[in-house]
Hints:
Layout: H1 4-16, H2 23-32, E1 41-42, E2 45-46, H3 52-70, H4 76-100, H5 106-115, H6 117-168, E3 237-238, E4 249-250
Antiparallel strand pairs: 1-2, 3-4
Helix pairs in contact: 1-6, 2-3, 2-6, 3-6, 4-6
Amino acid sequence: MHFLFQRFADQRTKKLSKKDDFEGPKNIALNAVGGNASSPKCGGQSVSSNSSILGSVTKLEACKGDIEKACPTAPAADLAPVEDCLNKTEKFRDSFLSTVAKGASASQICTAVDSLQTSKAEVLACKDVVANAESTQKAQKVACFNAFQACRKEERSTLTNVNDCAINGTITDSTAAPSSTASSNGSTPASISSNSTASSSSNSTVSGSSGSSASGSSGSSGSSASGSTGSGSSGSSASGSTGSGSSGSSAS
Length: 252
């Protein structure tokens, strides 16, 4: 049969014959997680049910059934009308070549043409039959190819997933939200020591306007940055004791 109908049907048949191609990759992925999809592990660690490698196992396991469903063999009931049209077309062609094409005179040719009118009408009636059949088969072929290509795509992804599980001992969770970055000991990286020197303090010790100076104590809640200048009591200076919360000032 030379119609597109048959070509589409043959293409589906070829894809159907490869339905078992994905059993091997599925078994490789399953073995990578310990052989038990109900209790999968990578590098001794439990794997989330949403992990990409378990997704590969599930999808590849479904491939055989998906391809069988999407790539069925064309039923005989669909083939019969098209085969009948093919036979009628070949009969018309053979009759034309043996009569009209070999007519020795115009009279013979005209007689031959008249004899082919019934056969011609049968062939013309086949136009819609074949067109509808080809349209149906084409749609089924597209569905078949889509199912098969989805399995091939998952097969390629499985290689990466198996590698991550086997080598790194981890696997991507496709639904997990990104975790926040934290230091290994759980401490706040930017914590400030209670003994650090404050740049500005409401309780800073100030020097008098007469020219006496003050130095800020390190580690006290009442300390100020060294070298700061402010207005305060006349003629007094103070130095804060290290590690003390008292003002520790002495009059000069």
